[in-house]
TrEMBL record:
It comes from the Bacteria. GO terms for molecular function: ATP binding; ATP hydrolysis activity. This is ABC transporter ATP-binding protein. Belongs to the ABC transporter superfamily. Pfam families: ABC_tran. Residues 2-232 form the ABC transporter domain. Keywords: ATP-binding, Nodulation, Nucleotide-binding, Transport. InterPro entries: AAA+_ATPase, ABC_transporter-like_ATP-bd, ABC_transporter_ATP-binding, P-loop_NTPase. Transmembrane segments: none annotated. It comes from Steroidobacter agaridevorans.
Length: 242
């Protein structure tokens, strides 16, 4: 579970987050939606303990991102914006390295790697160096790496960017599987259709503020829009006015 309350973040002259509050529950897929520059990646980087907020509080499964980052990292699997794979290591070695960082060893680690290589249909790709991977291959190995320690909460930063339709389908299936096993999944996107196709809850962020949040039905009601795309446009405009 993710609980975010009053996050503010400034980079020099840029106030990237002005006021971000929302929660994302277990057994749910939550979409963080916003235009380019709205503050999605900044929010996810604070949750991933890569950067610290100037104000406000973020909790992952009850652990505070700023005071207890190690506990947060144990609970959390992250697929960052750029895959961050080590180019000179094979897919399997990349996954193994992260498993070891999480304290997995021996037969348990080997079983976990085999399970993910099979689930993600990585096949021979797992044995190749990451250098030269296609977008889809990078995504799969990145996902395996994020899931190696069976995290309760999973964060994906714009995971479908640049993927073909088969890779998007595979990703959606996996995200639903994670939700159905009781995990909390938060993913960001700037495409409303994508969020609408998958999410139980939606948080719309504009100019560093949460402008609307709720189920798709609640968002339609709150914005008075006929469909979710129009709801997104209206909500984002509202943020611009604010
Ligand atoms: N390290 C940084 N230094 C300066 N400004 C930054 C930094 N990181 C983010 N920003 C600024 O903060 C604002 C929010 O950026 P952020 O990357 O969170 O947006 P986003 O919603 O993820 O956008 P996109 O969809 O384009 O990835 C932008 O104006 C961005 O230029």
């Amino acid at each position: 579970m993710i609980q975010v309350d009053g996050l503010k973040k400034r980079f020099g002259a840029v106030q990237a987050l002005q006021d971000v509050s929302f929660s994302a529950g277990d057994g749910k897929i939550t979409g963080l939606l916003g235009h380019n520059g709205a503050g999605k990646s900044t929010t996810l980087r604070i949750l991933s303990t890569v950067i610290r907020a100037n104000e406000g509080r973020a909790l992952i499964d009850g652990h505070d991102c700023s005071t207890d980052p190690l506990a947060v990292r144990r609970s959390l699997g992250v697929l960052p914006h750029a895959s961050g794979l080590y180019a000179h290591l094979s897919g399997r070695e990349n996954i193994r390295y992260y498993g070891e960082l999480h304290g997995l060893r021996g037969a348990e680690l080997n079983r976990s790697i085999d399970r993910l290589v099979e689930r993600l249909a990585l096949g021979a790709v797992a044995e190749r160096r990451a250098k030269g991977y296609s977008q889809g291959e990078r995504l799969k190995v990145g996902l395996a790496r994020a899931l190696i320690h069976r995290p309760q909460t999973i964060i994906l930063d714009e995971p479908t960017n640049g993927l073909d339709v088969n890779a998007v389908r595979m990703l959606r299936e996996l995200i639903r599987e994670l939700r159905d096993s009781g995990r909390c999944v938060l993913f960001s996107s700037h495409v409303m259709q994508e969020v609408a196709a998958l999410c139980d809850d939606i948080v719309i962020i504009s100019h560093g503020r949460v402008v609307v949040r709720g189920t798709p039905a609640e968002i339609l009601k709150a914005t008075g829009a006929p469909d979710l795309e129009e709801a997104f446009v209206r909500a984002a405009d509202q943020g611009e006015v604010a």
